[in-house]
Design goal:
The protein is of the alpha+beta class. The protein has a domain at 106-217: Ferric Hydroxamate Uptake Protein, Chain A, domain 1, CATH 2.170.130.30. It is 43% helix and 19% strand. The chain contains 5 helices and 8 strands. The chain has helices at 2-31, 35-45, 57-85, 94-107, 138-149; strands at residues 110-116, 123-131, 153-156, 163-167, 170-171, 180-185, 188-189, 204-210. The strands form 2 sheets. It has a 5-stranded mixed β-sheet, covered by helices on one side. It has a 3-stranded antiparallel β-sheet with strand order 3-4-5, with no helix packed on it.
Length: 224
């Protein structure tokens, strides 16, 4: 009887030891996972390599290409600004521009006109250039400049019969029976009406107020 109890006691201790060893073995496997499993976990948790600064080679090439494009554009803009600042670019040569302007001015024909009133009034219009067109007469030039300068003018007749009665509100006979307006071209009195005398380039026209039928302006008669 005693032997049987001792045998049961030994078997119980052996069973408990086996259970204890199995429990320790399971605890060790939970603490230290297998290398294969650990590597798999590490591989799945580690992000895929994307190069420097977290970029893939493809994205890095795109960034570098964009940077190069921006650099080239900035350089081109800087060069353009430099040319504009230094007066370069598409501006025409100043010498060519001056020559072109001179040619245009040479093609425009003009005459000079002066209007002198009686001594107490003096100069009504100083020497002034007026552009002319083909067929302009002395009276045409007077009417044109009077309109441009807002000078009062009164004429009668047309074309060859045109006659100036008053300029700047100064009329014939205002200064006596021999007073009125006379005209000279290039220093000579007109031999025909102002409405039929055709002017040419650089002619000098003078409208003068006389108190003696123009004799004081006729150099042949001792006038000025």
């Amino acid at each position: 009887m005693v032997k049987t109890r001792f045998l049961i006691y030994i078997l119980a201790i052996s069973a408990m030891s086996g259970m204890l060893l199995a429990s320790c073995s399971r605890a060790g496997s939970d603490i230290n996972p297998s290398p294969g499993k650990d590597a798999a976990i590490q591989q799945s948790s580690t992000p895929q390599s994307s190069g420097e600064n977290g970029q893939t080679p493809e994205s890095r090439q795109e960034v570098e290409g964009s940077a190069n494009s921006d650099t080239l554009e900035a350089a081109a803009q800087s060069e353009k600004s430099s040319k504009e600042g230094s007066g370069q670019g598409s501006q025409p040569d100043s010498g060519e521009t001056a020559d072109s302007l001179n040619e245009k001015q040479e093609k425009i024909e003009t005459v000079h006109i002066t209007i002198i009133g009686p001594k107490d009034k003096g100069t009504i219009l100083p020497d002034t250039r007026v552009a002319i067109v083909e067929g302009d007469t002395v009276i045409d030039i007077l009417k044109r400049i009077a309109g441009q300068k807002n000078i009062q003018l009164e004429c009668k007749g047309i074309k060859a019969t045109s006659y100036v009665e008053g300029i700047d509100n100064i009329y014939e006979f205002d200064y006596g029976p021999k007073s009125g307006w006379v005209c000279r071209v290039n220093g000579a009195s007109l031999v025909k009406g102002a409405g039929s005398f055709i002017v040419k380039n650089e002619d000098a026209i003078e409208w003068l107020y006389t108190i003696d039928l123009g004799k004081e302006f006729d150099t042949a008669l001792g006038g000025t």
